[in-house]
Amino acid sequence: MVPEKNGPIPSIDDCLTLMDEYEMLDNIRAHSFQVARVAETLMEAMEEADCHPLPDLDLVVTGALLHDIAKTPCLYRRCNHAKRGKKICLEKGYPEIGEIVREHVVLYDFSKERYRQGVFFAKEIVYYADKRVRHDAVVSLDQRLDYILENYGGRDKKIHELIRENFQRCREMEAALFSFLNFPAHELARHVSSKPFLRPFSTCPQELSD
User: pTM to 2 decimals?
Assistant: First the structure.
Protein backbone atom coordinates (compact mmCIF):
# COMPACT_ATOMS: atom_id res chain seq x y z
CA MET A 1 0.00 0.00 0.00
CA VAL A 2 1.02 3.61 -0.54
CA PRO A 3 2.13 5.11 2.79
CA GLU A 4 -0.17 7.61 4.49
CA LYS A 5 0.91 11.23 4.61
CA ASN A 6 2.96 11.89 7.72
CA GLY A 7 3.53 15.61 7.41
CA PRO A 8 2.50 18.82 5.63
CA ILE A 9 3.07 19.26 1.92
CA PRO A 10 4.39 22.62 0.70
CA SER A 11 2.41 24.62 -1.82
CA ILE A 12 3.84 25.48 -5.23
CA ASP A 13 4.54 29.00 -3.97
CA ASP A 14 6.32 27.52 -0.93
CA CYS A 15 8.56 25.57 -3.31
CA LEU A 16 9.34 28.69 -5.34
CA THR A 17 10.17 30.58 -2.14
CA LEU A 18 12.57 27.81 -1.09
CA MET A 19 14.19 27.87 -4.52
CA ASP A 20 14.87 31.58 -4.02
CA GLU A 21 16.02 31.12 -0.42
CA TYR A 22 18.59 28.50 -1.41
CA GLU A 23 19.60 30.48 -4.51
CA MET A 24 18.75 27.73 -6.95
CA LEU A 25 20.57 28.41 -10.20
CA ASP A 26 18.43 28.97 -13.28
CA ASN A 27 19.54 25.76 -15.00
CA ILE A 28 18.79 23.69 -11.89
CA ARG A 29 15.43 25.42 -11.54
CA ALA A 30 14.57 24.64 -15.19
CA HIS A 31 15.59 21.02 -14.61
CA SER A 32 13.40 20.83 -11.50
CA PHE A 33 10.37 22.22 -13.34
CA GLN A 34 10.83 19.67 -16.10
CA VAL A 35 11.20 16.79 -13.63
CA ALA A 36 7.94 17.95 -12.03
CA ARG A 37 6.31 18.04 -15.43
CA VAL A 38 7.45 14.49 -16.22
CA ALA A 39 6.32 13.28 -12.80
CA GLU A 40 2.90 14.85 -13.25
CA THR A 41 2.56 13.36 -16.73
CA LEU A 42 3.34 9.91 -15.30
CA MET A 43 0.77 10.39 -12.55
CA GLU A 44 -1.87 11.39 -15.07
CA ALA A 45 -1.03 8.34 -17.21
CA MET A 46 -1.22 6.06 -14.17
CA GLU A 47 -4.65 7.45 -13.30
CA GLU A 48 -5.86 6.99 -16.90
CA ALA A 49 -4.62 3.39 -16.78
CA ASP A 50 -6.55 2.89 -13.53
CA CYS A 51 -3.43 2.12 -11.48
CA HIS A 52 -4.25 1.99 -7.79
CA PRO A 53 -3.34 2.95 -5.19
CA LEU A 54 -1.81 6.16 -6.51
CA PRO A 55 0.60 8.30 -4.52
CA ASP A 56 -0.56 11.80 -3.66
CA LEU A 57 -0.19 14.08 -6.70
CA ASP A 58 0.74 17.18 -4.68
CA LEU A 59 3.42 15.18 -2.87
CA VAL A 60 4.87 13.96 -6.16
CA VAL A 61 4.90 17.37 -7.84
CA THR A 62 6.35 19.30 -4.90
CA GLY A 63 8.84 16.52 -4.22
CA ALA A 64 9.97 16.83 -7.83
CA LEU A 65 10.27 20.60 -7.57
CA LEU A 66 12.41 20.36 -4.44
CA HIS A 67 14.49 17.29 -5.26
CA ASP A 68 17.53 19.45 -6.05
CA ILE A 69 16.92 22.11 -3.38
CA ALA A 70 20.45 21.64 -2.01
CA LYS A 71 22.21 21.35 -5.38
CA THR A 72 23.41 24.96 -5.51
CA PRO A 73 24.84 25.03 -1.94
CA CYS A 74 26.52 21.68 -2.52
CA LEU A 75 28.20 22.89 -5.70
CA TYR A 76 30.31 25.14 -3.49
CA ARG A 77 30.60 22.96 -0.37
CA ARG A 78 30.95 19.59 -2.10
CA CYS A 79 28.30 18.03 0.11
CA ASN A 80 25.87 15.21 -0.70
CA HIS A 81 22.96 17.21 -2.13
CA ALA A 82 20.40 14.46 -1.52
CA LYS A 83 21.25 14.20 2.18
CA ARG A 84 21.61 17.96 2.57
CA GLY A 85 18.29 18.42 0.77
CA LYS A 86 16.57 16.09 3.23
CA LYS A 87 17.98 18.11 6.11
CA ILE A 88 16.65 21.32 4.60
CA CYS A 89 13.19 19.80 4.20
CA LEU A 90 13.21 18.56 7.80
CA GLU A 91 14.22 22.01 9.01
CA LYS A 92 11.32 23.52 7.06
CA GLY A 93 8.83 21.02 8.48
CA TYR A 94 8.41 18.77 5.42
CA PRO A 95 9.61 15.31 6.52
CA GLU A 96 7.85 13.41 3.75
CA ILE A 97 9.32 15.66 1.08
CA GLY A 98 12.66 15.11 2.79
CA GLU A 99 12.45 11.36 2.18
CA ILE A 100 11.72 11.94 -1.51
CA VAL A 101 14.70 14.28 -1.77
CA ARG A 102 16.97 11.83 0.07
CA GLU A 103 16.14 9.01 -2.35
CA HIS A 104 15.93 10.84 -5.68
CA VAL A 105 19.47 9.73 -6.62
CA VAL A 106 19.45 6.18 -5.24
CA LEU A 107 16.43 4.32 -3.87
CA TYR A 108 16.91 2.63 -0.52
CA ASP A 109 13.72 0.56 -0.75
CA PHE A 110 13.74 -0.98 -4.21
CA SER A 111 10.96 -3.57 -4.62
CA LYS A 112 10.54 -5.37 -7.94
CA GLU A 113 7.66 -7.39 -6.52
CA ARG A 114 5.74 -4.26 -5.52
CA TYR A 115 6.39 -2.65 -8.90
CA ARG A 116 5.05 -5.72 -10.68
CA GLN A 117 1.84 -5.19 -8.70
CA GLY A 118 1.63 -1.62 -9.97
CA VAL A 119 2.35 0.02 -6.62
CA PHE A 120 4.75 2.96 -6.78
CA PHE A 121 5.50 5.43 -4.01
CA ALA A 122 5.91 9.18 -4.58
CA LYS A 123 9.68 8.92 -4.12
CA GLU A 124 9.88 6.35 -6.92
CA ILE A 125 7.97 8.52 -9.38
CA VAL A 126 10.34 11.42 -8.63
CA TYR A 127 13.40 9.14 -8.78
CA TYR A 128 12.37 7.88 -12.23
CA ALA A 129 11.33 11.30 -13.53
CA ASP A 130 14.71 12.72 -12.55
CA LYS A 131 16.47 9.94 -14.45
CA ARG A 132 14.56 10.90 -17.60
CA VAL A 133 15.56 14.58 -17.59
CA ARG A 134 18.98 15.81 -18.70
CA HIS A 135 19.15 19.54 -17.97
CA ASP A 136 15.60 20.46 -19.07
CA ALA A 137 15.19 17.89 -21.86
CA VAL A 138 13.34 14.58 -21.59
CA VAL A 139 15.78 11.87 -22.69
CA SER A 140 16.10 8.09 -22.54
CA LEU A 141 17.67 6.32 -19.58
CA ASP A 142 20.66 5.42 -21.78
CA GLN A 143 21.22 9.07 -22.70
CA ARG A 144 20.92 10.15 -19.08
CA LEU A 145 23.29 7.38 -18.00
CA ASP A 146 25.92 8.53 -20.50
CA TYR A 147 25.66 12.06 -19.12
CA ILE A 148 25.97 10.93 -15.49
CA LEU A 149 28.97 8.74 -16.25
CA GLU A 150 30.72 11.52 -18.12
CA ASN A 151 30.04 14.25 -15.56
CA TYR A 152 30.04 12.39 -12.25
CA GLY A 153 31.84 9.11 -12.83
CA GLY A 154 35.34 10.46 -13.21
CA ARG A 155 37.89 7.69 -13.80
CA ASP A 156 36.82 5.60 -10.83
CA LYS A 157 35.69 2.20 -12.11
CA LYS A 158 33.85 1.46 -8.86
CA ILE A 159 31.79 4.64 -9.16
CA HIS A 160 30.98 3.75 -12.78
CA GLU A 161 29.86 0.31 -11.64
CA LEU A 162 27.61 1.73 -8.93
CA ILE A 163 26.06 4.22 -11.35
CA ARG A 164 25.37 1.47 -13.87
CA GLU A 165 23.81 -0.73 -11.18
CA ASN A 166 21.55 2.14 -10.14
CA PHE A 167 20.40 2.67 -13.72
CA GLN A 168 19.79 -1.04 -14.18
CA ARG A 169 17.40 -0.89 -11.26
CA CYS A 170 15.76 2.11 -12.86
CA ARG A 171 15.32 0.16 -16.11
CA GLU A 172 13.59 -2.61 -14.18
CA MET A 173 11.27 -0.07 -12.59
CA GLU A 174 10.62 1.52 -15.98
CA ALA A 175 9.63 -1.83 -17.49
CA ALA A 176 7.21 -2.50 -14.66
CA LEU A 177 5.74 1.01 -14.69
CA PHE A 178 5.13 1.18 -18.42
CA SER A 179 3.61 -2.29 -18.49
CA PHE A 180 0.59 -0.58 -16.90
CA LEU A 181 0.54 2.63 -18.95
CA ASN A 182 -1.09 3.25 -22.31
CA PHE A 183 2.09 4.35 -24.09
CA PRO A 184 5.69 3.05 -24.17
CA ALA A 185 8.61 4.65 -22.34
CA HIS A 186 10.16 6.04 -25.54
CA GLU A 187 7.05 8.17 -26.12
CA LEU A 188 7.26 9.92 -22.75
CA ALA A 189 8.83 13.09 -24.17
CA ARG A 190 5.96 13.51 -26.64
CA HIS A 191 3.36 13.11 -23.90
CA VAL A 192 5.16 15.58 -21.66
CA SER A 193 5.41 18.21 -24.39
CA SER A 194 1.77 17.83 -25.42
CA LYS A 195 0.23 18.35 -21.98
CA PRO A 196 0.18 21.51 -19.87
CA PHE A 197 0.65 21.25 -16.13
CA LEU A 198 -2.49 20.22 -14.27
CA ARG A 199 -1.54 22.91 -11.74
CA PRO A 200 0.09 25.81 -13.61
CA PHE A 201 2.91 27.39 -11.62
CA SER A 202 2.50 31.06 -10.80
CA THR A 203 6.16 31.78 -11.55
CA CYS A 204 8.05 29.47 -13.86
CA PRO A 205 9.98 29.56 -17.11
CA GLN A 206 7.63 30.54 -19.92
CA GLU A 207 8.60 27.57 -22.07
CA LEU A 208 7.45 25.22 -19.31
CA SER A 209 4.14 26.96 -18.63
CA ASP A 210 2.80 27.15 -22.19
Answer: 0.91
